[in-house]
Specification:
alpha/beta; Metallo-beta-lactamase, Chain A
Length: about 375
C-alpha cells in the first residue's frame, strides 16, 4: 500500500512538471507559435512536407540520440582557451544610408544589411545578446554590442529570414524593429512566430523552395538549403528553411542561410547564377552535424557551385555554437579561397562592403 502511494505521488509530480513545462512553452512568447492546422494542411502541397513535417530531400544525418548528446555536452564542458576571443575587438563604422549603390554590412553571425537599388533588406537580423530563449544566461555576443543603435537603422523595405532558429530569428530584435519594417519574406510556417510577436499578417509573405517573385523592382527567389528548423522540444520540422536569391538591376546576391553541402548549390547556380556576391555560411560546424552545417572548404566549393564572384563568409564571429576555435572558420575559408582563386572579403563587424568596388582588401582583423 505504501508503495502504491509513493508511485502515485511520483506520478503526480511528473505529470505536474510536464504540465508546467507545456504551460510555460505556450505562455512564453520567445518560443513563437507553431503553424495552425489550416496552415499545415496547405503545406501538404509542398514537396518538402512529408509525414507531417518538413524534411530534406537528401538523407541528412544528425545523430542527436541520448549518448551522442551527452558526448557533445561533455565536449562543450571541457575548457578551450580559443573558443571565444580573449578580448573584445574593434568594429567598423557602418554606412546605413539607402542609396543606389549595392553594399552589404555584416553585423556578425548571419545578420546583414543589404542595400540594393535603393532598397534596404535586413537578412536574418539576430541583433541580440545571445541566440537562446533565455538570452540573459551564459556568455553572449563576442563584440559585447553592435557598432550602431537599432534606432539608427533606416526604414527596412524587407526583412528576409532563412529559418526560425534562435541565431537567425531573434524575438528581442523583431520587437525592436517591427515598426520600421515594410515586409517580411519568410519560408513556409515562419509567419506564426512573427504574428504572435505583433507583426501584422499582411506584412508577411511565406514561400516554398523555388518560388520566385518581384518586390519593388527586385527579383527574389526562395531556394533550397539542407538544414532543419525548430524553436522548442516539440516543433522540429514544423517550419521550412531556405536560402535566398536577390537580383537587382545592377547586382545579384546569394544568401545561403544555414546549410550542409549538397547538390542544391549547383542547381541554384545553373538557374540563377552568376552572383556578384555570395553570403556563405561558414562556422559552427562539427563532423557530427556536417550534413546540416558546411565545413569551411565546402563553403568555398558551394560559392563556386552557385557561380559566385565575391564571397563574404558568414555564420561566425559572434557566438560560440560549436567546438572549434572561434577563428577557425575564417582562416580555413580564406586558405581554401586562395587555393581555388576565389575572391573573398572578410569585413569587420559593422564594416560596409561596396559590392562592385574595384578592390576588396582582406583584413585579418581577428588576429
Amino acid at each position: 500500500m505504501e508503495a502504491e502511494k509513493l508511485l502515485l505521488i511520483l506520478t503526480s509530480i511528473v505529470v505536474g512538471i510536464v504540465c508546467v513545462i507545456v504551460l510555460f512553452m505556450n505562455v512564453y512568447p520567445v518560443f513563437g507559435r507553431r503553424p495552425s492546422k489550416e496552415k499545415t494542411l496547405a503545406f501538404s502541397r509542398s514537396s518538402q512536407y512529408l509525414n507531417g513535417k518538413f524534411e530534406n530531400p537528401v538523407p541528412t544525418m544528425m545523430n542527436m540520440g541520448f549518448m551522442n548528446t551527452v558526448g557533445i555536452l561533455l565536449d562543450f564542458a571541457k575548457s578551450s582557451p580559443n573558443r571565444r576571443p580573449k578580448k573584445q575587438f574593434a568594429m567598423g563604422s557602418p554606412n546605413l544610408i539607402k542609396d543606389l549603390e549595392t553594399k552589404v554590412t555584416w553585423f556578425g553571425h548571419s545578420a546583414s544589411l543589404l542595400t540594393i537599388d535603393g532598397k534596404a533588406l535586413l537578412l536574418d537580423p539576430m541583433l541580440g545578446k545571445a541566440p537562446s530563449p533565455f538570452p540573459w544566461f551564459g556568455k553572449g555576443r563576442y563584440s559585447g554590442g553592435l557598432p550602431f543603435e537599432i534606432t539608427q537603422l533606416p526604414v527596412i523595405d524587407a526583412v528576409i529570414l532563412s529559418h526560425d532558429h534562435y541565431d537567425h530569428l531573434d524575438y528581442g530584435t523583431i520587437m525592436k524593429i517591427k515598426h520600421k519594417v515594410n515586409k517580411f519574406f519568410v519560408p513556409l510556417g515562419v509567419s506564426g512566430h512573427l504574428i504572435r510577436w505583433g507583426v501584422q499578417p499582411e506584412k508577411i509573405e511565406e514561400y516554398d523552395w523555388w518560388d520566385e517573385f518581384t518586390f519593388e523592382g527586385l527579383t527574389l527567389a526562395c531556394t533550397p538549403a539542407t538544414h532543419f528548423s525548430g524553436r522548442s522540444m516539440t516543433d522540429r520540422g514544423a517550419t521550412l528553411w531556405c536560402s535566398w536569391v536577390i537580383k537587382g538591376k545592377q547586382s545579384s546576391i546569394f544568401f545561403s542561410g544555414d546549410s550542409g553541402y549538397s547538390s542544391h548549390f549547383k542547381e541554384i547556380g545553373l538557374k540563377y547564377g552568376p552572383f556578384d556576391l555570395t553570403l556563405m555560411e561558414c562556422g559552427q560546424y562539427d563532423d557530427r552535424w556536417s550534413d546540416i552545417h558546411m565545413m569551411p572548404e565546402e563553403t568555398v566549393q558551394a560559392h563556386m557551385d552557385v557561380n559566385g564572384k565575391l564571397m563574404i563568409p558568414i555564420h561566425w564571429g559572434a557566438f560560440t555554437l560549436a567546438l572549434h576555435d572561434w577563428t577557425d572558420p575564417v582562416e580555413r575559408a580564406t586558405r581554401a579561397a586562395h587555393a581555388n582563386k576565389v575572391s573573398i572579403v572578410t569585413p569587420k563587424i559593422g564594416q560596409t562592403v561596396i559590392v562592385n568596388a574595384a578592390d576588396h582588401p582582406i583584413e585579418t582583423w581577428w588576429k
